[in-house]
Amino acid sequence: MRLAKWDNLKFILMYTVVLGHFTNLLQTDSTLLSGMQVFVYMFHMPAFLFVSGLFSKKTVDERRYDKMFPYLVLYFFMVAFRFLVYSVAGGSVKSIRLFSEAGLPWFALVLFLFYIVTAQVSRLSHSYLLIVSIGMGMLAGYATNLGSFLSGMRFFTFYPFFLLGYCIPLDRLTQWTQKRWVKVSSAVFLLAVLAASYLYEPQLRRYMNFFKGKTTYAKVDMAVYGGICRGFYYLFVFALIIAVIAVVPSVRTCFTTWGQRTVQVFALHMPIIRVLMQNFHLEEHLAAWIPRYGCVVPVLALILTIVLSLRIWQPFFDWLMHGGRKKARVTA
């Protein structure tokens, strides 16, 4: 039985992904958008990986490689779709470098690798695995040879979130985040972080690549103490993720069904946004029509998220992710 809370959460997280990529390509100096971008990039991909880990238990424990392989298929599709769209639209991608990924398909690639690795080590002590993975994540930023091959830097940086989701019992987490005091304190905490993201946006923006987990500590002026900062980052982001889960409604909403189709939004949205910006000059039109168009961007991101969540795209992605077998839950 599907729980509405998790589908609601998936839709909200996917919306933050689309919004984040919209703001990445804008030239606006809107402080509101910039603060929102900083806030979103603090937690949205770790949160998706954590939720993926939560629902990976049966697949990992039973070593169902037939349910893991579709994430690799999704990676190949996203690489091919990006190449096709950008080639036709005159974009920046002129060739394909498989398994050397710095763009959006990195998520599908590392998710596949997370499943494979976790299936191999799942019989070890969970506390041991968490300590080792966090330690490797803290050390990864010092390495200069990880680069984009197999999204190495992001693999080590974000694996603790997936593993933590795998280790935490879903029912216990659901019950705990339903407590009234947890909900209230989580709402206050999220509002405080959002306000800080807005007020201290210029200072926090310097660490955007740190939040994205794709660069060494030296490149963000943390050559010495970056590992310690990553450790505090894990604690802070885990608290953010729990807070977001706590405030998400548990009842069915107008977007619950859309939350069941996040794979198609994830796979399609980025090339579409680039075409809108580069070929249809969306930002120039917005600037001409609406002087302070920054406030409209969250609405546009929501519209695109909803459009790509519609049932029309579902048959193809059901085939892509499930082939001829019975459909199972896929979190992306």
Fold topology:
Layout: H1 4-25, H2 31-54, H3 57-61, H4 65-89, H5 106-121, H6 126-140, H7 152-167, H8 170-176, H9 180-199, H10 201-205, H11 208-212, H12 226-247, H13 262-278, H14 282-289, H15 297-308, H16 314-322
- Cα shape: globular
Structural class: mainly alpha
Low-confidence segments: 328-332
Question: What value does the average pLDDT take?
Answer: 89
Straight-line N-to-C gap: 18 Å
Short description:
This protein is an all-alpha fold and 332 residues long. It has 16 helices and no strands.
Can you walk me through this structure?
Helix content is 69%, strand content 0%. It has helices at 4-25, 31-54, 57-61, 65-89, 106-121, 126-140, 152-167, 170-176, 180-199, 201-205, 208-212, 226-247, 262-278, 282-289, 297-308, 314-322. The longest helix is centred in the first third of the chain and has 25 residues, at 65-89. It is globular. The model is unreliable at 328-332 (pLDDT under 50).
Features:
332 residues; disordered C terminus; mainly alpha; 0% strand; single chain
